[in-house]
Amino acid sequence: MRVIDSHQLRFGEMAGPLVHGAKFFDWQLISTQAFAREVGYPFERLVGDGAIPYAPVGVDTTVYRYPAFGETVSVDVEATRVGDSSLELVYETTDGDGEPLSTARMTHVTIAPEGGALSLPADVKQTLADHRVDRTVDVGPGDDPESDPNRYPTFEESFSVNAPHIESSELAYFEEYPRFADVALESFLAASGVRLAEISGDRQPYRIRDWHWEFKSPVRFNSELAVESDVRAVDDDAIRVEHAFRTEGTVRISGVTEYGCFDRAGNPTTFTPEMLAPFEG
Protein backbone atom coordinates (compact mmCIF):
# COMPACT_ATOMS: atom_id res chain seq x y z
CA MET A 1 0.00 0.00 0.00
CA ARG A 2 1.56 3.31 -1.06
CA VAL A 3 0.96 5.81 1.72
CA ILE A 4 3.42 8.59 0.78
CA ASP A 5 3.66 9.30 -2.93
CA SER A 6 6.44 11.37 -4.52
CA HIS A 7 6.98 13.69 -1.58
CA GLN A 8 9.54 16.36 -2.54
CA LEU A 9 12.15 17.10 0.09
CA ARG A 10 12.14 20.66 1.38
CA PHE A 11 14.68 22.84 3.14
CA GLY A 12 13.32 22.26 6.66
CA GLU A 13 13.78 18.49 6.28
CA MET A 14 17.48 18.69 5.49
CA ALA A 15 20.73 18.51 7.45
CA GLY A 16 23.19 19.99 4.99
CA PRO A 17 22.79 18.54 1.48
CA LEU A 18 21.00 15.38 2.68
CA VAL A 19 17.77 14.67 4.53
CA HIS A 20 17.97 14.63 8.33
CA GLY A 21 18.12 11.07 9.73
CA ALA A 22 15.10 11.71 11.95
CA LYS A 23 12.95 12.02 8.82
CA PHE A 24 13.06 8.25 8.36
CA PHE A 25 11.29 7.98 11.74
CA ASP A 26 8.93 10.79 10.74
CA TRP A 27 7.97 9.05 7.49
CA GLN A 28 7.28 5.84 9.41
CA LEU A 29 4.93 7.69 11.76
CA ILE A 30 3.12 9.49 8.91
CA SER A 31 2.86 6.22 6.97
CA THR A 32 1.42 4.37 9.96
CA GLN A 33 -1.33 6.97 10.27
CA ALA A 34 -2.21 6.69 6.57
CA PHE A 35 -2.22 2.88 6.76
CA ALA A 36 -4.40 2.99 9.90
CA ARG A 37 -7.02 5.08 8.10
CA GLU A 38 -7.05 2.67 5.17
CA VAL A 39 -7.75 -0.36 7.41
CA GLY A 40 -10.47 1.45 9.37
CA TYR A 41 -8.68 1.78 12.70
CA PRO A 42 -7.45 5.40 12.61
CA PHE A 43 -5.36 7.29 15.15
CA GLU A 44 -8.16 9.83 15.67
CA ARG A 45 -10.57 7.19 16.90
CA LEU A 46 -8.07 5.73 19.35
CA VAL A 47 -6.89 9.09 20.69
CA GLY A 48 -10.52 10.08 21.15
CA ASP A 49 -11.00 7.00 23.33
CA GLY A 50 -7.97 7.91 25.46
CA ALA A 51 -5.65 5.25 24.00
CA ILE A 52 -2.09 5.63 22.74
CA PRO A 53 -2.36 4.47 19.12
CA TYR A 54 0.12 2.19 17.37
CA ALA A 55 2.84 2.61 19.98
CA PRO A 56 6.15 1.18 18.70
CA VAL A 57 7.49 -1.83 20.55
CA GLY A 58 10.46 -2.58 18.35
CA VAL A 59 11.91 -1.07 15.20
CA ASP A 60 14.68 -2.29 12.89
CA THR A 61 15.83 -0.14 9.99
CA THR A 62 18.55 -0.04 7.35
CA VAL A 63 19.26 3.07 5.26
CA TYR A 64 20.82 2.27 1.88
CA ARG A 65 21.11 5.85 0.66
CA TYR A 66 20.25 9.29 2.01
CA PRO A 67 18.10 11.34 -0.40
CA ALA A 68 19.37 14.81 -1.30
CA PHE A 69 17.70 18.21 -1.48
CA GLY A 70 14.99 18.38 -4.17
CA GLU A 71 14.58 14.61 -4.55
CA THR A 72 11.24 12.87 -4.10
CA VAL A 73 10.50 9.97 -1.78
CA SER A 74 7.66 7.45 -1.64
CA VAL A 75 6.76 4.99 1.12
CA ASP A 76 4.95 1.67 0.77
CA VAL A 77 3.65 -0.22 3.81
CA GLU A 78 2.85 -3.91 4.15
CA ALA A 79 1.41 -5.82 7.10
CA THR A 80 3.59 -8.88 7.71
CA ARG A 81 2.26 -10.17 11.05
CA VAL A 82 -1.09 -9.71 12.76
CA GLY A 83 -1.57 -10.79 16.37
CA ASP A 84 -4.38 -10.39 18.88
CA SER A 85 -3.04 -6.99 19.93
CA SER A 86 0.16 -6.48 17.92
CA LEU A 87 0.83 -5.58 14.32
CA GLU A 88 4.10 -5.80 12.39
CA LEU A 89 4.52 -3.47 9.42
CA VAL A 90 7.30 -3.22 6.86
CA TYR A 91 8.06 0.20 5.37
CA GLU A 92 9.88 0.60 2.04
CA THR A 93 11.15 4.08 1.16
CA THR A 94 12.14 4.65 -2.47
CA ASP A 95 13.43 7.57 -4.53
CA GLY A 96 11.91 9.07 -7.68
CA ASP A 97 13.38 6.28 -9.81
CA GLY A 98 11.94 3.58 -7.57
CA GLU A 99 15.36 2.72 -6.13
CA PRO A 100 15.39 1.74 -2.43
CA LEU A 101 16.40 4.31 0.18
CA SER A 102 15.52 2.41 3.36
CA THR A 103 13.64 -0.59 4.72
CA ALA A 104 12.12 -0.64 8.20
CA ARG A 105 10.27 -3.28 10.22
CA MET A 106 8.20 -2.07 13.16
CA THR A 107 5.98 -3.83 15.68
CA HIS A 108 3.07 -1.79 17.08
CA VAL A 109 0.61 -2.16 19.92
CA THR A 110 -2.10 0.25 21.04
CA ILE A 111 -1.95 1.11 24.74
CA ALA A 112 -5.35 1.10 26.47
CA PRO A 113 -6.30 4.11 28.67
CA GLU A 114 -5.89 1.95 31.77
CA GLY A 115 -2.59 0.52 30.51
CA GLY A 116 -1.71 -2.71 28.74
CA ALA A 117 -2.07 -3.61 25.09
CA LEU A 118 -5.51 -3.13 23.55
CA SER A 119 -6.88 -6.10 21.60
CA LEU A 120 -7.56 -5.48 17.94
CA PRO A 121 -11.30 -5.45 17.10
CA ALA A 122 -12.36 -8.56 15.19
CA ASP A 123 -13.28 -6.67 12.01
CA VAL A 124 -10.00 -4.72 12.01
CA LYS A 125 -8.02 -7.88 12.65
CA GLN A 126 -9.72 -9.51 9.67
CA THR A 127 -9.02 -6.50 7.45
CA LEU A 128 -5.39 -6.57 8.50
CA ALA A 129 -5.21 -10.30 7.85
CA ASP A 130 -6.57 -9.67 4.35
CA HIS A 131 -3.78 -7.12 3.77
CA ARG A 132 -1.04 -9.31 5.24
CA VAL A 133 1.81 -10.48 3.01
CA ASP A 134 4.12 -13.41 3.68
CA ARG A 135 7.45 -11.68 3.82
CA THR A 136 10.60 -11.57 5.96
CA VAL A 137 13.08 -8.71 5.84
CA ASP A 138 16.63 -8.69 7.22
CA VAL A 139 17.35 -5.14 8.35
CA GLY A 140 19.06 -3.37 11.21
CA PRO A 141 22.53 -3.87 12.65
CA GLY A 142 24.21 -7.26 12.63
CA ASP A 143 25.40 -9.24 15.61
CA ASP A 144 27.53 -7.44 18.19
CA PRO A 145 31.18 -8.02 17.28
CA GLU A 146 33.64 -9.13 19.91
CA SER A 147 35.50 -6.16 21.34
CA ASP A 148 37.21 -4.88 24.45
CA PRO A 149 34.51 -3.03 26.44
CA ASN A 150 37.16 -0.69 27.85
CA ARG A 151 38.56 0.28 24.48
CA TYR A 152 35.82 2.68 23.40
CA PRO A 153 34.26 5.70 25.14
CA THR A 154 30.87 6.17 26.75
CA PHE A 155 29.05 9.49 26.96
CA GLU A 156 25.74 10.87 28.18
CA GLU A 157 23.52 13.89 27.58
CA SER A 158 20.29 14.94 29.33
CA PHE A 159 17.27 16.73 27.90
CA SER A 160 14.13 18.32 29.32
CA VAL A 161 11.21 16.86 27.37
CA ASN A 162 8.92 19.85 26.96
CA ALA A 163 7.27 21.50 23.96
CA PRO A 164 7.99 21.18 21.07
CA HIS A 165 9.14 17.62 21.85
CA ILE A 166 5.70 16.34 22.94
CA GLU A 167 2.38 15.59 21.26
CA SER A 168 -1.25 15.83 22.36
CA SER A 169 -0.99 12.67 24.44
CA GLU A 170 1.92 14.30 26.31
CA LEU A 171 4.50 11.83 25.09
CA ALA A 172 7.76 12.56 23.31
CA TYR A 173 7.46 12.47 19.55
CA PHE A 174 8.73 9.26 17.95
CA GLU A 175 11.11 11.14 15.63
CA GLU A 176 12.63 13.15 18.49
CA TYR A 177 14.59 10.20 19.88
CA PRO A 178 17.17 10.04 17.05
CA ARG A 179 17.54 13.82 17.36
CA PHE A 180 18.37 13.44 21.05
CA ALA A 181 20.88 10.71 20.18
CA ASP A 182 22.41 12.95 17.49
CA VAL A 183 22.82 15.84 19.93
CA ALA A 184 24.46 13.54 22.48
CA LEU A 185 26.91 12.37 19.80
CA GLU A 186 27.62 15.89 18.59
CA SER A 187 28.24 17.07 22.17
CA PHE A 188 30.75 14.24 22.65
CA LEU A 189 32.51 15.14 19.41
CA ALA A 190 32.64 18.82 20.34
CA ALA A 191 34.12 17.96 23.75
CA SER A 192 36.73 15.87 21.90
CA GLY A 193 37.73 18.91 19.86
CA VAL A 194 36.10 17.78 16.60
CA ARG A 195 34.89 20.59 14.33
CA LEU A 196 32.56 18.99 11.78
CA ALA A 197 32.98 21.76 9.23
CA GLU A 198 36.74 21.18 9.21
CA ILE A 199 36.76 17.38 8.84
CA SER A 200 33.71 16.72 6.65
CA GLY A 201 34.73 18.02 3.23
CA ASP A 202 32.69 16.13 0.65
CA ARG A 203 31.56 13.55 3.24
CA GLN A 204 28.60 13.56 5.58
CA PRO A 205 29.73 11.61 8.68
CA TYR A 206 27.94 10.29 11.78
CA ARG A 207 24.58 9.69 10.11
CA ILE A 208 22.23 7.06 11.53
CA ARG A 209 22.33 4.03 9.21
CA ASP A 210 21.24 0.76 10.87
CA TRP A 211 19.30 0.52 14.11
CA HIS A 212 17.42 -1.83 16.37
CA TRP A 213 15.50 -0.03 19.12
CA GLU A 214 13.13 -1.55 21.69
CA PHE A 215 10.50 0.69 23.26
CA LYS A 216 9.70 -0.39 26.81
CA SER A 217 7.58 2.55 28.08
CA PRO A 218 6.81 6.09 26.93
CA VAL A 219 8.76 9.25 27.71
CA ARG A 220 6.28 11.70 29.18
CA PHE A 221 5.93 15.46 29.26
CA ASN A 222 8.17 17.26 31.78
CA SER A 223 10.54 14.28 31.96
CA GLU A 224 14.28 14.66 32.26
CA LEU A 225 15.60 12.27 29.62
CA ALA A 226 19.15 10.91 29.87
CA VAL A 227 20.62 9.48 26.67
CA GLU A 228 23.42 7.05 27.54
CA SER A 229 25.72 6.05 24.69
CA ASP A 230 28.20 3.18 24.90
CA VAL A 231 30.44 2.84 21.84
CA ARG A 232 30.90 -0.86 21.12
CA ALA A 233 32.80 -1.09 17.83
CA VAL A 234 34.47 1.20 15.31
CA ASP A 235 35.71 0.58 11.77
CA ASP A 236 35.96 2.43 8.47
CA ASP A 237 32.30 1.73 7.64
CA ALA A 238 30.41 2.11 10.93
CA ILE A 239 30.44 3.36 14.50
CA ARG A 240 28.34 1.03 16.64
CA VAL A 241 26.66 2.49 19.74
CA GLU A 242 24.44 0.92 22.37
CA HIS A 243 21.81 3.41 23.48
CA ALA A 244 19.76 3.59 26.67
CA PHE A 245 17.15 6.34 27.11
CA ARG A 246 16.28 6.75 30.80
CA THR A 247 13.87 8.79 32.87
CA GLU A 248 13.83 8.57 36.68
CA GLY A 249 16.52 5.90 36.44
CA THR A 250 14.33 3.57 34.34
CA VAL A 251 15.23 2.54 30.79
CA ARG A 252 12.43 3.60 28.44
CA ILE A 253 14.17 2.78 25.15
CA SER A 254 17.20 0.61 24.49
CA GLY A 255 18.92 -0.46 21.34
CA VAL A 256 21.88 -0.59 19.01
CA THR A 257 22.61 2.11 16.46
CA GLU A 258 25.22 2.07 13.73
CA TYR A 259 26.32 5.41 12.31
CA GLY A 260 27.70 5.58 8.80
CA CYS A 261 29.35 8.08 6.50
CA PHE A 262 27.81 9.21 3.19
CA ASP A 263 28.90 11.35 0.27
CA ARG A 264 27.03 14.48 -0.82
CA ALA A 265 24.86 12.40 -3.18
CA GLY A 266 23.77 10.26 -0.22
CA ASN A 267 25.74 7.12 -1.11
CA PRO A 268 27.62 5.19 1.58
CA THR A 269 31.33 5.87 1.88
CA THR A 270 34.00 5.36 4.54
CA PHE A 271 35.02 7.42 7.54
CA THR A 272 38.38 9.15 7.45
CA PRO A 273 40.92 8.53 10.24
CA GLU A 274 40.18 12.05 11.56
CA MET A 275 36.51 11.17 11.91
CA LEU A 276 37.26 7.99 13.86
CA ALA A 277 39.98 9.40 16.10
CA PRO A 278 37.65 10.51 18.97
CA PHE A 279 36.39 6.91 19.37
CA GLU A 280 39.76 5.20 19.53
CA GLY A 281 40.52 5.13 23.24
TrEMBL record:
InterPro entries from the UniProt entry: HotDog_dom_sf
CDD domains membership: 4HBT
Name the UniProt record assigns to this protein: Acyl-[acyl-carrier-protein] thioesterase
Organism: Haloferax denitrificans ATCC 35960
Organismal lineage: Archaea, Methanobacteriati, Methanobacteriota, Stenosarchaea group, Halobacteria
